Structures
1.
Amino acid sequence: MAQQASDDLRFVVAIDLGTTYSCYAFSPIKDQGRDSIFMNRDWTNDDGVRTSKTPTCLLLKSDLSFDSFGYEAVQKYTGHQDKCRKGGYLFFQHFKMALHSDETINTETTIKASNGQLVKAKTVIATSINFLKKEALKVIRTQTGDISANDILWVLTVPAIWTPRAKQFMREVAYEAGLGSPDNPNQVLIALEPEAIFCLTKDMSTFKSEPGCISVKRQVFSQPNTHFMVVDIGGTTLDVTVHAFKEDGAIKEIHKVTGSHYGGIYVNQRFESLLEELFGAQELQTYRKQFPSHWLRLMSEFESKKRGERILDDTAMINIRLPRSFVRLVNQTRSPAMARYGEKEVKLEDEEYLSLSSGMMKKLFTPVMESIKKHLKTLLKKPQLSEVKTIFLVGGFADSVLLQNEIEREFSKGFRVLIPNCVSLAVVHGAVIFGKEPSKITEIVVGTTYGANCARDFIPGVYPEEKKFSADGIEKCGGLFNLFVKQNAVVRIREKTVTSKYTLLRATDTEINFSFYASTNPDAKYITDPGMTKLGSVMDTSPDTWRGKDREIEVSMYFGGTEITATARDISSGNVCSNHP
Ligand SMILES: Nc1ncnc2c1ncn2[C@@H]1O[C@H](COP(=O)(O)OP(=O)(O)OP(=O)(O)O)[C@@H](O)[C@H]1O
Ligand SMILES: [Mg+2]
């Protein structure tokens, strides 16, 4: 549950481990505002270009110990491919995608390294977070002298559309990486990316879309009950939320988070498909296996061209430098597809470059851009969103001039489209503010249905026979889903949101175990129904057996904005047990 940082914590450090790029930012807890937010030192890529984010790539040694992260991991892997292969180094990229759709993610879930070896997702992600943690500590120490991980409130960002199970998994991984611990859970906050951005909106003053406009603050942010849509488009995730400021400056959620797996990476995937079309899927497959690091270099080259503004120039040809090994492959295949497109669209230049017209480049963006626009259009038609007049566009992919133009063209007639100058760092900056003032968000719309298991007196014909059991001579039906909160309900956060009373099944029971579930079906009846995910459990003790079955346990769920805490309290003894289920 998001709680105010305790007094002895000195810094907030937000770690944004993205699917494609990562970074961190920090700020002394006592200082207010955005001016005191510091970023990591710039990272330097192969061409000496400095960037605020580094690729989310990890290189592990054969014994699974850490070797390098980010550009360094890429450079080492691409520069010493044979050594990496012989030495059994393991290279991981885009590994966070494993958490996107896996409802059953757990500590045993594995991720494939580029050589095909399977390693636990928990190890890969915790090692990456641990690297960013150590980097952050190093930088803060240069400014403040001695400081330890225990002096810090750690904020980890997660896409809002992730399943509750995946969000919980990130908390477990944080502990594994040495951020907080199960005994000290309040030292870690899990921040939903669009909510983190929302925390920043009041501090945003310069916008790409409205250069020189200082009135935005007055016209938009200072007006209570103005509904905003935050559209966060990263490497693989589109997260959309709608919030409003209340009279007292607090934030309430107007619509639950929606989104899908759309993001910048899908442009790269389209480029891969184009290469397959041009040079043969089978050949590409072999090439990737034979020259994995050259392949990585080719994709990095595409990545930098994809970010360029030349794409807007209709007459431009965009040159993508090819590794020599790739040129050899290309020369062997002599693709008929290339002839079909014609030299104005695609050609090989000087045996060194693949030259694509800006039109061809744009086509690589089209499917993902269309999906994003379609999602937003459908959403904005909903009656609950009729008051939305402002759309914030943020996230790394929102830095694409092509995407910006498309969104503005589509939506600027009906909406004010605001693109802050810090698009790609908005998440991490917002997460720092979220850490400093988590109480800014006061009301949320619950995106999933939550509940716990329970047993009730058996009613023949109503409950299935196979769920019948006997407790102290009374027939019961077990495995029922006791609804706590239904999808789309508005709840006030950091308050005891939903409570349910349980009695003990047997007079001699001294312990009672509650399991908590998220359900995609708001009307689910049993914990075995489809779409049910177990989130965790809480065990409470109830020692006063002399009261027999006449003992009540109060089970509550608190919504912390991002996470849920479950509490079971034995009313007679006062014994309490809490957990992030
Ligand atoms: N100027 C640009 N033009 C086009 N694409 C860009 C530009 N800048 C960044 N991107 C794309 O944005 C994506 C990275 O965005 P971001 O750093 O927000 O993602 P992430 O945090 O790794 O992903 P996620 O939030 O989905 O886990 C990459 O696909 C990158 O190619
Ligand atoms: Mg991100």
2.
Amino acid sequence: MNEPAIADKFAAFEELIPPLTDLNAPYREALSRGELILQRCKSCSSYQYPFESFCYECGSTELEHKISLGQGSIYSFVKVHQPYHSAFKPFIPYTVATIQLDEGPRLLCAMLELTTEVEIGDRVTPRIERITASESMLTYELEGS
Ligand SMILES: [Zn+2]
């Protein structure tokens, strides 16, 4: 049996996509180009996510966008066995993890297609999945898998 096309697997996610805002648009546009970006403070050089209009560390409003390799490790995770939305049914059970990025920020993501169990501290690598004609989603897989 053939695997369903990526677009088919993620079709039900479309209604979960939040509206574009001035803050999230650059991140989402970068993802749709296949790039992960973070905000970086021009004053204290710290990276941050989620995006905000000021630096979480020093309060500066001088922020820029920097491409991230997205490499990091599992900081925490849960395994989800309930399909809280029909979009997730094909992926049950799946893992939701907090990823500790090498640049410093942590981000939350669903690891929908893991084939092995994860542990805290495992190294992970990002994968960007196209879910609609204009939107992509960040997910993670174990490094080397
Ligand atoms: Zn700062």
